Amino acid sequence: MEAIKTNHITLTVNLQQAINYEIANHFLIIPKSISEEEGVFYIDQTQESTISNIREELKMLFNKQVSLEMVESSVIKKALSTYYRRNDSEPKLVSYRNDFLEDLIFEAKHINASDIHIEIYEDDVRVRLRIDGQLIEKNNIKKENYLELINQIKIKSNLDITEKRLPQDGRIEYEEFDIRVSILPTHHGEKVVMRILGRDASHLDINQLGFEIDDLPLYLEAIKKTNGIILISGPTGSGKTTTLYGTLKYLNNINTNIVTVEDPIEYTLKGINQVQLKEDIGLTFTSALRSFLRQDPDIIMLGEIRDAQTAQMAIRASLTGHLVLSTIHTNSAIGTISRLVDMGVPSFLIAETINISVAQRLIRTLCNTCKEEKDFNEDDLPLTFNIKKKLNKHHVAIGCNDCYHTGYKGRRAIYEILPITSDVIDAIKKNTLEQSDHMKNKKLSDKAFDLFTKGITSLDEIYPILIN
Known about the structure:
The chain is of the alpha/beta class. It is about 30% helix and about 25% strand. The protein has 15 helices and 18 strands. The strands form four sheets. Strands 12-11-13-14-10-15-18 form a seven-stranded mixed β-sheet, sandwiched between helices. Strands 6-5-4-9-8-7 form a six-stranded antiparallel β-sheet. Strand 7 and strand 8 (about 175-185) form a beta hairpin.
């Protein structure tokens, strides 16, 4: 039996679901086509000596005729690492067999997915996982099973199974991690997003977050002050909360009273008093902060400054001798100052209370095993980006077994820091900060391009940052 000549196997989601991780890796097979009468599988050519036995086992397993087509080992290994991904450094996945939801949650956890999306459309229901910031389609679910799955999620997260018209938020708790559940009514039914939250922040190290060697001392100097505001900005999923927890761990000691209000509590830290936001009963950022001031705190962490009232309370807390840490949704370190002004905070108060403004992003890093160097054409850069040094070569994503054929392995943060110097204070008070030259060579775009020139990431990954 000769091996079929093919360099690549492409699987649809339905075919991928035909067999599980254990079967695919045990027999070294990949489904080619599945019908009611027959299953056709690609098989590793190294299995040729036992191919008859494997065929008989698969017949019994699937209760149908089985055909096997041999292909080269490299092709099978590539398909297995692409479509049957598993984090081998984690303990073996617990199999729940008859519980699709538990299987899905634990598999997502073990392959380091951050979110699980369950979406219903007119003809089908799909499941997607967010891995390293990218959504990957994982499963299709029969529509007749959709309602049972949604109700199971609602029951586990203590939500109302009869409420289908309004959004609901809940939480599922496990021993080592939690799931934040968000349910949103859509045109065809309810969409579910489950955010996987790690409980333990003891592994976070401020020295390993990604601050450059020149930026880290500036940040440490700002957070060592006994009062003032530390603001971290960036879009959802840019690592702001991780930076805050790394900072809290650094500041946490026996002599310091630290309180936080969060939505949700993503990590837990021993020695820190953490409060979960509950807006439906009136426990908002503003009301919690008002109560915190009567708890004799040294350091206060607000999950987010969302409105003018919260911003003004944070300013007030810093003026009365507290160090306040929070996040805010802006695109740059300077944009944070403008956002506070737009919220109605007087410029002179901002200048007197802000210790440092930080903007950050997460960038996927190229896999060192398979990345390739190629000629670089400057015309591929955005027209608005001003290149500062000549570049002849660059690295591109290829894909291999080590990176599950994505071309990327892991992510790292980049930071844009605005230290509040006397010149910056004057510019804030005069509302001339955005026209000043204080961020020269410190912008996120410059930091991202620097990683690109060093071959750490690709142009595709940093392009959105370069055009901002």
